[in-house]
Each structure stands twice: as C-alpha cells, then as structure tokens.
Amino acid sequence: MTAVTTEPPRPPLWRRALAFALAIWGVLRRPSTVFSLGLLILAGFVAGIFFWGAFNTALEFTNTEKFCTSCHEMRENVFEELKTTVHYTNRSGVRAHCPDCHVPHDWTDKIARKMQASKEVWGKLFGKIDTREKFLDHRLELAIHEWSRMKANDSLECRNCHSTESMDITRQSPRAVAAHQRFLFTGDKTCIDCHKGIAHQLPDMRNVPGWQ
Question: 64-114 pLDDT, tens per residue?
Fold first, then answer.
C-alpha cells in the first residue's frame, strides 16, 4: 500500500501578496552585492530624469484647455459662457484659457492648486453636477468656493496678467479710476471682490453678503 500525500493548502491571496511585497522590500533594503555604488547612483539619476519628465508632462497636460473641457460638465456649462466674454474674444486677440484664471503660474502654488483640485474628482465620479439642473442647483456653492479661494490668494491668477504697476488709469473710465484708487491701490479690496462674473454668468446673488 502506498501512502497518500496531500499538499498543504495554499495561503490566501492577501498573504501571498504580503509575502511578495516583504520579499521585494527585503531586496531593496539590503546592500547590493552585484552592482557597484556608482552604477546604482547613475541608474537612480536616469530614473529620476524619466520620472520628472513624465510627471511634468502629465502636469502640463492637465493644465490645458483641452483637458479642462474634456468633461461635459465644464464643456457644456462654464466653457460656453466663457466664449461670450472679452476674455475669450477681443480686439487684441489675447485669449485667457481655463488654467490662466484657475491655476497659479508659480510652480509651488500650481502644485498646491492641483492637490486641491484632486478633491474635485470625487464630484465627477459621483455625478454631483452631471446634468444642467444639478449644475444650476450647485452654482452658487461652486462660485462661492472659487471666489473664496481667489480672495485668499489676493486674486493671484488675475495678477498673472493684470498688474497695478502697468495699469494706465488715464485710459480708464472715471468710475473705474475711482474704484481702483480707493480699493485696489490701497489693498482694501482685491480683483475678485468687484469682478465677479467677469468670465462666467453669476448665480442668484440675493443671499451673497455685501453684494449690491
């Protein structure tokens, strides 16, 4: 009679995955016995270049109008409104794209804004404004969120193109001159305080504090 041997039961998938991850970590943390230190440094340097190039390429792609309008929520709502404004079509031929007004140009501030915008992906995934009706219902909430952000950074995106140093107030209307001298030049107010709705339609402003 021959003895019947039975194989031990295979561990569950999560245990095998954990064991594999621990084995890889063990290899990574042990000193290399095959490759020289110089080769490892060179390989890390080259890998860093490729990683930075890929990261920067992806970052710049998300900073384009094509990317911003790839979602129908933006393309069919706020982008259509932008097309009717002076920021899109004007006598000088200068066009402000979505990132020009919603993403700071400075790298550090840009990264901070991208991290903040990553939270908005949840709204896309769960269809918070995936219809025109939902968009209109949330319009005031979305607008206040963006106005507050621009108020906090002193209208940084506006100042990427508009600066008080290059502003010729002699070519402005008397009303604009008075407002700029009283509020903007003194630092009492920032651009977004007075220029809400400059590129998109305003929501119902009856419950917005300070709005006249």
Answer: 999 989 988 899 999 999 999 999 999 889 899 999 999 888 888 888 888
- C-alpha angle 21-23-25 in degrees, rounded to nearest 5: 70
Which two structure tokens, joined as six digits, stand for 172?
A: 């402005």
Number of residues that make up the chain: 212
**168: three-class secondary structure by DSSP:** coil
Residue with tokens 């490759």: 35
Give the H/E segment covering residue 79: helix 79-82
Q: pTM of this prediction?
A: 0.71
Distance separating alpha carbons of residues 94 and 86, to the nearest angstrom: 9
- Where in 14-61 does DSSP place strands (E)? none
Cα→Cα distances 158→63, 87, 103, 105, 191, Å: 16, 11, 10, 11, 7
C-alpha–C-alpha distance, residues 58 and 18, integer Å: 31
